[in-house]
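Let us practice reading a record.
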Amino acid sequence: MIRIAIVVQRYGKDVVGGAETLSRDVAERLNSNGYDVTVFTTTAKDYVTWKNHYKEGESILNGVLIKRFDSEKERNIEEFNKYSTEFFNPDNKSRNENEWIELQGPYCPELIEAIEKEQDNYDLFMFFTYLYHTTVEGLKVIKKPKVLFPTAHDELPIYLNLMKDVFSLPDSFFFLTESEMNLVKRLFNPSKNLALIRTGIEFKEDINNLLIKNNYPLIIPFMLYAGRIEKGKGLDLVFNAYGELRNRILLDFVLIGKKLMDIPEIEGIKYLGFVSEEEKLSAFNQAYFSIQPSPVESLSITTLESFTQKTPVLVNSQSDVLLEHIRYSNGGFSYSNEGEFINNAIKLYNSKKLRKEMGERGYDYVKNYFSWEVVIDKIKKEIEKII
């Protein structure tokens, strides 16, 4: 039996995060495919503070053994953001990169010591996300074969000098998108194995499509945004464009997710807050189209979820990842300014035939490349090759 160790900054059924969810999905599916999987992680639930939350020690979740370790430092996000602003100032010539990584966290020396001490018990190590202290320091101590899921995108930390070492250490890289793989090639040109794995998406066929309308006072037609509502997600442009769009067509704008910025008071905007997974998929199903306005994405699960419900997507053209989804699926449009957003929204609004065709193409794209059977089969083949 092949023994796999997974190292990730947070882990748990109630931990929300793209890389963290991916690590759990991979761990549980490899475990159910006959691999012996152990997860090394912190006791943190919250990535903002890294506050110790879960009980330290060993536990089992869905058949997977978890080894948790307390972090030694909590993070004050306001102080860290202030520090980071000065740290990434182009005029700062004396910055300490190791100090920034330590403050970024989670700072958990016991976890690093544990994987170094226990590494001979495993055939392969998988690290998730290049950005955190657990990966930066963990990769250094492992002599066994090791894989990195970078979940990388074009952001300031990836240009740190120490990242040259981080991206030289893995024996193999597993990428979620072609755009991510091309970014890593361009920045680091690693000579190791590069594999386009992608990620798996659940296809839930038994969702009550009318659930969102039954539980909330919604009127169709509407466009949908699902995700964190915060600065940096590109929503300011969308809000501005929607004010003009609403004057031209009767289309509501529904938002679901955590609200971290003010939502303007524009007629037609409806904020629902948090909804259940079934309600979210129902909302995707009932929307005329969904939007993904973020200029920086490493994957965009919500774009893929929209496609599972055969709903086209309107995406920000600044994101190479989102453009990749649209280019390969032909399941929506991209925009670079308010005018393009409005024009493409009106195209989708006016043509049921166009929405249906794009939605079905998006569904086929996800089915062919992002079903869990396809993804796990690729991972298994790569594991066999590495070992």
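A brief commentary: The chain has a mean pLDDT of 95.
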